[in-house]
Amino acid sequence: METPDKKLKVAIMGAKGYPYVYGGYDTMIKELGERLVSRGIHVRVYNHRALFSDRPRYVNGIECIYTPAIEKKSLTQLTHTFCSMLHACFSDVDVIFVVNSGNGPFGIFSKLFGKPTAINVDGLEWLRPKWKGFGSKYFYWASKMSTRLYDQVINDSEEMRRVYLREFQTDSKVIAYGANPKEDVAEKPIKHWGLKSRDYFLIVGRLVPDNNADLIIEGFLASNTARKLVVVGDVPFDDPWANRLKNLKDPRLIFTGYVNDPNELAALYSHCFAYFHGHEYGGTNPAMLKALGYGCAILALDTPFNQEMLQNGKHGWYFAKMASAVTEVVDKSEKSEDELARLRASARNGLTKKYDWDYVTEQYIEVFQQLSREK
Predict the structure, then answer these.
(1) Pairing with 52, which of 200, 288, 314, 341 sits 20 to 30 Å away (CA)?
(2) Left, alpha or beta for 337 (phi > 0: left; psi -120 to 50: alpha)?
(3) Is residue 59 part of a domain?
(4) What domain range includes position 277?
(5) Residues 219 and 307 in one domain
(6) Kindly report the CA angle at 60 between 122 and 22, in degrees rounded to 5?
(7) CA distances from 129 to 80, 144, 231 (A)
(8) What is the DSSP letter of 365?
(9) What is the widest separation between alpha-carbon atoms in the chain?
(10) Do 24 and 170 fall within a single domain?
(11) Is residue 1 part of a domain?
C-alpha cells in the first residue's frame, strides 16, 4: 500500500502516446492522464518514438518515455507495446495500464515480474473486416489472453461486458469513455468547405469497411435530398477500398480527409443537418459521443452498441445495414425537420454521468489503487 508521501505510479501504454491525439485511445490517455496528474498520481505514458521529433521527458506533468517499434503496418503497435511493457516491468511503477486487446499476450511479462495490471480491451477486433484469416484469429486469441493474464479487464459498455462474458467466461469492469460537450460553436469554419448550417449530412470516422461509409454513401446518393454529404476522415495508407469511395463523382459528396483543427471539426458537427454513425463493432464510440456533445441529430446503424449509447432510440434514429434503409432515413429526415430539431435539442442529455471525464477518472483511480493495495 502506498504511503502518504509516496505517489502512486501508473504506467500507460498501447496507444501512440501523449500529447499526440489521433484516435480514441490517444484522446483517452490525454483526458485521463492529465486528470490523474491533477489528483497527485505519477503518470508515465509510453510514446511511439517515431511519431515524436521533439522528446521532452515531461509534458504537462506527465512523464513521457519514447520506445521504439518495428515500423511495419501490422507490427508497429504490437512491437511498440512489447518494448514498453519490458521497460515498465524493469521500472518502479506500481500499476501498468494497457489499452487495446491486441496487447493481451504481453501480460505474461507483467505476471512474471509481479506487476499489477489493467487492460482496456475495447471493441470486437476479431470481427473487423480488415483482419482476415490469421489477423482475426490472432485478435480473438489476444482478447482471450487479456482475460487470463491481466488482473483487471475493463470494457467501456455493458454490451461489451456481455460479449466478454459469453466469449471468454470473464467478467469485466465497465468504465465508459468520456465526452466534452460544447455549445454555441461558430459557423464560420464550415465556410472553408462552402457549407452552410443545416445544409449537409455528416460522417466522421476512418474510411474502413466496418464503419460502413460505402453503404451510407450509396443510400444517400439514391435519395432525393439536395443537401450534401460531408465525409470527414481517411486512412493513413494507400487503400483500394477507401480510394474507390474518394473517387466517386457527385456534386453532393465532399471528402475533407482528416480535419485536425478542433474548432473546424466542432463546427462541422454542430452545424450538420444530421450525423450518420455507421460504426459496426465496439463499445462506447468517441465519434458518437462528440455527436451527442455537439448537439447533433443522429442517424445510427442499428447495433446493440449504438442502441445502448442512444438509449434505445431516445437520442437518435436507427437504420438497418442496407443502402435502401439509408435512403429511407434520409428521405424521412427531410420530411421531419421539427423532429430532427428536437433530437438536436435533447442530444446533450444523452451524456449521462457515466460519460463525464471526471467520473471516468475517479473510477480508474479506484481500480489502480485497488490493484496497488493487492500487490
Answers:
(1) 288
(2) alpha
(3) yes
(4) 188-352
(5) yes
(6) 35
(7) 24, 19, 20
(8) H
(9) 66
(10) yes
(11) no
Per-residue confidence band for 3, with pLDDT thresholds at 50, 70 and 90: very low
CA distance 6 to 267: 44
Q: Are 99 and 286 in contact (CB under 8 A)?
A: no
Q: Would you say 215 and 194 are in contact if contact means Cβ atoms under 8 Å apart?
A: no
Same domain membership, residue 197 and residue 174: no
Q: In which band, very low, low, confident or very high, does the pLDDT at 57 lie, cut at 50, 70 and 90?
A: very high
Q: Which residue's entry shows cell 482475460?
A: 147
> Phi and psi of 48, rounded to 5°?
-75, 110
Position 124 scores a pLDDT of 78
Q: Looking at the structure, do residues 148 and 280 belong to the same domain, yes or no?
A: no
Task: Name the residue type at position 14.
Answer: G
Q: What angle do CA 172, 75, 153 make, to 5 degrees?
A: 5
Helix runs in the chain, H state only: 24-38, 76-89, 107-113, 134-149, 158-168, 213-221, 240-246, 262-270, 286-293, 304-309, 323-334, 337-346, 357-374
Burial (0-12, 13-18, 19+ Cβ within 10 Å), 52: middle
The CA-atom distances, in angstroms, between 256 and each of 169, 231, 259, 286 are 43, 6, 7, 19
In a domain, residue 207? The reply is: yes
| Cell numbers describing residue 89 | 516491468
Residue 338 cell numbers, joined: 421539427
The beta strand positions in 165-315, using DSSP E, are 173-174, 200-204, 228-232, 253-257, 274-277, 298-301
> Scanning the structure block, which residue is given the C-alpha cell 465519434?
287
State pTM to two decimals: 0.89
| pLDDT for residue 4 is more than 70 | no
Provide the grid cell at 41: 498520481
The side-by-side arrangement of strands in the sheet containing 228-232 is: 253-257, 228-232, 200-204, 274-277, 298-301, 317-319
Q: Which positions ≥6 away from 309 have C-beta within 8 Å?
A: 157, 284, 285, 288, 289, 292, 300, 350
